[in-house]
Amino acid sequence: MESWAAHEALTAQASVYPLAPIGDLVTPRSETVTAEEFGDHKPITVHLTGEISVRDRPQPFQGAMFVGHPGDIVFSKIDARLGAIGVIPENIGTAVVTAEYPIHSPDPDALDADYLKMVLRTGHFIADLRQKASGTSGRKRVTPEGFRSLRVPCPGIDDQRALVAAYHGALGQAAALEAEAAELEADGLRAFEAALGIVAPPSLPDRPLFVGRFSDLARWSHEAVLRRVTGTEPPPSPYPIVALEDVIADLENGWSPQCLTRPADGEEWGVLKVSAASSGTFKPSQNKALPPQLKPRPALEVKAGDVLIARASGAASLVGRCCYVDAAPPRLMVCDKIFRVIPLINQPVDLRFLVQVLETDYVRRQILGEFSTQSGMMKNVTKPVLLSLTFPMPTDLAVQAALVADLTAAQTAAAARRGEALTTRRDAWRAFETAIYGDASEPPLIDEADEETQLDASEVDA
Question: What's the pLDDT tens digit per position in 37-51?
Answer without folding.
Answer: 999 999 999 999 999
